[in-house]
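Q: For a teaching session next week I want to show students how multiple molecules come together into a single three-dimensional assembly. I've collected the sequence lines for a complex. Could you give me the predicted structure tokens for the whole thing so I can convert them for display?
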Amino acid sequence: MSDKFNGKVWVLGDDIDTDIILPTEYLALKTVDDMKPYAFSPLRPELAAKINPGDIIVAGKNFGCGSSREQAPEVVKALGIRCIIAKSYARIFFRNAINNGVLLIENDKIQDLVKEGDDIEVTVGEKISANGNDVSINSLPDNLVEILNAGGLVKAMRKRNGLD
Amino acid sequence: MGMTMAEKIIAMAAGVKETKAGDIQTVTLDYMMSNDGTTHLTIDMYNNDLKNPHINDPSKLVWIVDHNIPADSPKTAASHKKMRDFARENNIDFYEGEGVCHQVMMEKYVCPGQLIFGADSHTCAYGALGAFGTGVGCTDYLYAMVTGTSWLLVPETIRFNLHGALKEGVYARDLILTIIGKISANGANYKVMEFAGDGLKSLSVSDRISVCNLCVEAGAKTALMEVDDIAMDYLKSHGRSPKALFKSDDDAIFSEVYDIDLSEIEPIVAKPHFVDNVVPAKESLGVKIDEAFLGSCNNGRIEDLRVGAQIIKGKHVADKVRFLVVPASREIYNQAMEEGLLSIFLEAGAIVMNPNCSVCWGSCQGVIGEGETLISTGTRNFKGRAGHKDSFVYLASAATVTASAITGEITTADMLK
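A: Of course. Below is the structure for the complete assembly, covering every listed component.
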């Protein structure tokens, strides 16, 4: 995982729940690629088609609240979202996202400094640069960084056990 | 330094003498429950991504088909078949048609002092019997299934001291919705919600399950209740005994403490589209409904069906309103049949369904269409949760839901007297 990257921002609000990230009726679709068009559809039906790989989601508090469905972080990853920056995360989503190799950053300042469409720069574990402002961010614990860098928990375990 | 109930359960599961909030512990799990929401994904990872995989201890796995039972499409039939075949080949306890997963777990497995993973967010219900149950995704589940262990950040505990008793016509569901409204949808994020106090003895095991089950809607990692004679009687009547009996020490550290007078709780409604968007039911009166749902792991037990049946006996469901009644398990279904409750619902024009998750998760029978409104004893009212993305879900007690089914608009039971 590169330490520094740029991305275009999509802004979402507080309490983005798992039924918004991926509604129940699409959970049985055969592959996560089939689910992609429906991500965030209850809230913003147009959004999934506009998201490009490398884009960044900036959201409010309690991102990912609700069900334990792992299709939620999987679809975020399949859309190519580079990272999510939110004020806070619901705990099951937090684990599921890390386990799928989706970078999560917890920060409550950036929301006031960006608007949708802005291009921001993230230096992992250090800072976010947006519109001339720098906001410092914490690094994740080493064991979670290991999982993220491997691309998820299963891949990290394969690597640790010498299978890859 | 004293320990909380959660710290004691985790310490035991980790094989250490003591632990405190903020520690990370590797724990051995007592049970791992999974349902048809994501088990097919776990099986795919197990078969495709691991080399020579094996299950650490199949006797600790419990697989339950409840979200889409009976299958509603070739896609879900295929997913169930994958689960059924894998369970058969690997000697995993497997149920379909037996009930909603958490209710089945309460009836057949959960014991005080255990640490249980469930691939479902409402696994926190197990705290009603003093067990630490917590929801995980299918990757964490896979890791636990293969190793028998997982890691946990030891959570802080918020303590709720309950006092007195609920008034007549007010239910455990009103209590927990009130608490969620008070602390908000992420008010207990990462934390344990522990319930104690003299008020606990006024709550049945069914009430306790309702309270604990919904704590994830405040973000909680789990909910816990001290085990008393009421919990022990339930356990004995289901042929089980505790792994260990724990309660928080007097000098345990709580992140917050609330004292709640149960007699002050009133009938509550959670309005669309958040569980913490609560108002007194009296402020939502008159909202027209298209469907009412009495069921779910939160509120589909015999006590809830009795409340509904008593209200609707001799009355009828409103014109052009569907009233779904879904007992949460086969055990409950049987008992409701023996008590004559199902006849009361059927005579009143309700649709009585087999035990399943039903409209509570929006992909079983009973989903609602564009612009429709549901009043529900289910777990969530997120936008689109019960069907079409432009539909509306109000959460309320069995009494308010049944009264509303009769009038076709949000109504409290006392208004029908």
